[in-house]
Structure formats: C-alpha cells, structure tokens
C-alpha cells in the first residue's frame, strides 16, 4: 500500500503561519500526497508552493462548527473557487442534524452544490460522525449520497471524537458506491491509517502525514 496517495496533508490551526504553509506544501510535494488542506486565507499561497506538482489544494468551508448561515457558506465557496481551491471540505450544519431538521440540510446542500459543480471543484461533506448516533449517520449517508458529492468526511478534528473504523464501515455500508470516504481526526500512525483504508476510506486527513508515511516505510511496504 502506497499510503501517501491517500493523504490530505493538513494544517488548520488558527495560528497558522506562512512558514507553516510552505513547510506543509514542500512536504506534500516531496511525499506526493494527494492534497494539502489549508485555511481559506492561504489558498493562493498554497497554490504557489504546489505549482508544477500533482498536489491539489483543498480548503474548508463553515469550519469547524458548521453553523454558519447558508449565505455565508455560499460566499466562502465562491471566494475559495476564485482563489483557486481544487477541493472544498464543507462542514454542514451539525446543529440541524441534532435537531432533526433534514429539510434545512437538504436546502443547504442544494444551494451549495450547483456553483461547486459548475466550476468542476471536488466537494467533501463533513458530518462530524463522532458526535452523531448511528441513525443520524445513516440519514446523512442517504441525504448526501444522492446530492452529487465526491466524499463524505468523518470529522473536523475539533470534536471530542475523530475518525473511527466503525464510522467508516457504516459510511461504506450506506453510501452509494460512487461516493468516496474521507477519514480525518486523530490519525497519527500508519497502523490506524491502514485500518481506515481497509474499512473503506479512500482519503485521509492528517497532520501527522510524514510520520505515517515513514511508519509505512519502516514496515517495508515500499
């Protein structure tokens, strides 16, 4: 398994420096990660540091709590597209899930998807699986599975619980085959990353990406 191909090398802390972005991007290019995931204000910077490489630039929308107004998320999406983001990791309204307001959630995704698809950008929907019941996760799989998204993503990394093998398996059971899975939150070593991929994840959001890849090399995988 060449695990580097699965990784979104990530830094999203509020104190992120330009030097942090440069280091992130240099590592992503060196290790040939799938993408870097950076705060919206660093999209242009990341594009500069990853030019002439295959590394995509992803950013976050409505991050990390998801309760921004639909109009605010739409503005964030538009700005991210203008700045050159290749992929958008969108936190949907977690509060609406907990309040069983599926009409709001359908309205939210229906407002965001047209502009994203018109501009041929990848979209990953973050549902924060660690704070949801299995029934809520299944309903999310059903709603977003038919919405045209590319990935359903487990976590922001800011909740008390991140990615789990169980959540990824539940996603895979209830999502249509064409919708991929991104696991993120608390992935710090190769063994856990490998388990998540075996459970069905096709992308991993990690800040410990270099350690994970070096852990794979230590096991002699490549």
Describe the secondary-structure layout:
Elements: E1 7-10, H1 18-31, E2 35-38, H2 43-50, E3 56-61, H3 70-83, E4 87-91, H4 94-98, H5 102-118, E5 122-126, H6 134-145, E6 151-153, H7 165-174, E7 180-184, H8 190-199, E8 203-206, H9 209-218
Parallel strand pairs: 1-2, 1-8, 2-3, 3-4, 4-5, 5-6, 6-7, 7-8
Helix pairs in contact: 1-2, 3-5, 6-7
Protein name: Deoxyribose-phosphate aldolase
Pfam families: DeoC
Catalytic activity: 2-deoxy-D-ribose 5-phosphate = D-glyceraldehyde 3-phosphate + acetaldehyde
In total, the number of domains comes to: 1
Share of helix among residues? Answer: 40-55%
Shape field: globular
Proper CATH architecture: Alpha-Beta Barrel
Query: What is the C-alpha radius of gyration, as a whole number of Å?
Result: 16 Å
Order of helices and strands: EHEHEHEHHEHEHEHEH
Question: What structural category do the secondary elements indicate?
Answer: alpha/beta
Q: Largest beta sheet, briefly?
A: 8 strands, parallel, barrel
Strand content: 15-25%
| CATH class type | Alpha Beta
Measured between the Cα atoms of the first and last residue, the distance is 8 Å
Mind telling me the CATH superfamily name?
Aldolase class I
Query: Helical segment tally?
Result: 9
Number of DSSP E strands: 8
> Average pLDDT across residues?
96
Strand order of the largest sheet: 1-2-3-4-5-6-7-8
Low-confidence stretches: none
């Amino acid at each position: 398994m060449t695990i580097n191909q699965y990784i979104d090398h990530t830094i999203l802390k509020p104190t992120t420096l330009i030097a942090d972005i440069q280091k992130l991007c240099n590592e992503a290019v060196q290790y040939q990660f799938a993408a870097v995931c950076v705060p919206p204000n660093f999209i242009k910077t990341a594009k500069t540091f990853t030019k002439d490489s295959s590394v995509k630039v992803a950013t976050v929308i409505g991050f990390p709590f998801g309760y921004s107004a639909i109009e605010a998320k739409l503005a964030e999406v538009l700005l991210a597209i203008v700045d050159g983001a290749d992929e958008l990791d969108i936190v949907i309204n977690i509060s609406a899930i907990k309040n069983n307001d599926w009409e709001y959630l359908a309205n939210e995704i229906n407002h965001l998807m047209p502009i994203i698809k018109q501009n041929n950008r990848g979209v990953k929907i973050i549902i924060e699986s660690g704070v949801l019941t299995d029934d809520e996760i299944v309903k999310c799989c059903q709603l977003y599975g038919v919405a045209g998204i590319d990935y359903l993503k487990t976590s922001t990394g800011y909740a008390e619980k991140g990615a789990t093998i169980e959540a990824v398996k539940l996603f895979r059971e209830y999502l249509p085959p064409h919708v991929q899975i991104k696991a993120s939150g608390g992935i710090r070593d190769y063994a856990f990353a490998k388990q998540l991929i075996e459970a069905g994840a096709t992308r991993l959001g990690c800040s410990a990406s270099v350690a994970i890849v070096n852990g794979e090399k230590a096991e002699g995988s490549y």
